[in-house]
């Protein structure tokens, strides 16, 4: 048996547009980018399944139904890479359900029955004990399709769709957004599986919208990033996002219009990390400077919005002097 652990998943670099097929040396292959938990599943010679996160944390206790399904569908000596997802009752991907499962403790078995998940497999690293990493993607894909076969109704382990047709991929990019699909992953058909290397591309659907500046990291005179908010139905200013680092010109322009907050600013002096991107409790609290919530800015963000907040950092575009805070979309409304 060749299986070795742990595995460092192959990664992707973000690009802004869907590339043509000739952009990849061996021709491009396009797959939907699912919004879930990245996971590598390993089935050893005894049939024992281990499910590992991207950061090599064991997922077996959090997703027991996936462990069982992998053991039933994949033979011993198999290692595959994929994404754990949960489809909500509305047909959209529900990332919040995955987070609940990951921190549920004793309630995990209960949630596994109430909110069962799926494992979408997009690559095979080992099969029958043979190392497939050096082989081109086009060959690994054939092995994966043979391993999974036709998915029976209700299957919890399924293969991801893949196409070489860029026009079909662009249709996916537009049509699947309603299901919470983030965009596309683009891969070289001749490419090997390079653990830990960023040799794939990802293209994310982005939304342009507005928010109110409620604080900055750095200083008011030299802001490094913005903490953005929107008002909810009760008139409370709620945190929705944090921007990526600002360009020098943006820092200068914002410093000229931002004012230090009055004593009645609604936000605390520190914010939990999950209030402005990233999982709750994963990082130290965000230290920032509160500013008077009167400046409206335009930003672009991806489709990973959960509970009215963007999980990933957003990009500042410009100050909107033509808009007042009252004209910004309300918290929880569509962007």
Automatic annotation (TrEMBL):
Instruction: Fetch the InterPro entries from UniProt.
Output: ATP-dep_DNA_ligase, DNA_ligase_ATP-dep_cent, NA-bd_OB-fold, OBF_LigC-like
Q: Which reaction does it catalyse?
A: ATP + (deoxyribonucleotide)n-3'-hydroxyl + 5'-phospho-(deoxyribonucleotide)m = (deoxyribonucleotide)n+m + AMP + diphosphate
- Upper lineage: Bacteria, Bacillati, Actinomycetota, Actinomycetes, Streptosporangiales
Q: Which family does it belong to?
A: Belongs to the ATP-dependent DNA ligase family.
Keyword set, alphabetical order: Ligase
UniProt entry tagged with the keyword rRNA-binding: no
Per the UniProt record, the source organism is Actinomadura chokoriensis
In its UniProt entry, what is this protein called? ATP-dependent DNA ligase
Q: Which GO terms describe its molecular function?
A: ligase activity
């Amino acid at each position: 048996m060749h299986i070795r652990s742990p595995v460092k998943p192959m990664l992707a670099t973000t690009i802004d547009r869907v590339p043509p097929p000739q952009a990849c040396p061996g021709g491009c292959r396009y797959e939907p980018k699912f919004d879930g938990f990245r996971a590598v599943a390993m089935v050893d010679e005894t049939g024992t399944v281990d499910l590992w996160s991207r950061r090599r944390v064991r997922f077996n206790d959090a997703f027991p139904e996936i462990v069982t399904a992998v053991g039933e569908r994949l033979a011993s000596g198999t290692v595959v890479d994929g994404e754990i997802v949960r489809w909500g009752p509305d047909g959209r991907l529900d990332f919040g359900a995955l987070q609940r499962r990951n921190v549920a403790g004793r309630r995990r078995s209960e949630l596994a029955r109430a909110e069962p998940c799926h494992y979408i497999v997009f690559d095979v690293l080992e099969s029958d004990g043979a190392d497939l990493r050096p082989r081109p993607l086009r060959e690994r894909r054939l092995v994966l399709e043979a391993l999974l076969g036709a998915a029976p109704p209700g299957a919890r382990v399924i293969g991801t769709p893949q196409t070489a047709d860029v026009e079909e991929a662009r249709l996916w990019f537009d049509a699947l957004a309603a299901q919470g699909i983030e965009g596309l992953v683009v891969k070289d058909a001749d490419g090997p599986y390079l653990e830990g290397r960023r040799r794939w591309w990802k293209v994310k659907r982005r939304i342009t919208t507005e928010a109110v500046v409620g604080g900055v990291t750095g200083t008011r005179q030299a802001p490094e990033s913005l903490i953005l908010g929107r008002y909810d139905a009760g008139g409370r200013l709620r945190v929705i996002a944090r921007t990526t680092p600002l360009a020098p010109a943006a820092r200068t322009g914002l410093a000229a219009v931002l004012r230090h907050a009055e004593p009645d600013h609604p936000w605390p002096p520190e914010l939990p990390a999950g209030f402005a991107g990233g999982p709750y409790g994963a990082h130290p609290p965000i230290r920032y400077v509160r500013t008077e919530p009167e400046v409206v800015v335009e930003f672009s963000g991806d489709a990973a919005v959960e509970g009215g907040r963007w999980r990933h950092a957003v990009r500042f575009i410009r100050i909107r002097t033509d808009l007042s805070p009252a004209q910004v979309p309300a918290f929880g409304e569509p962007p």
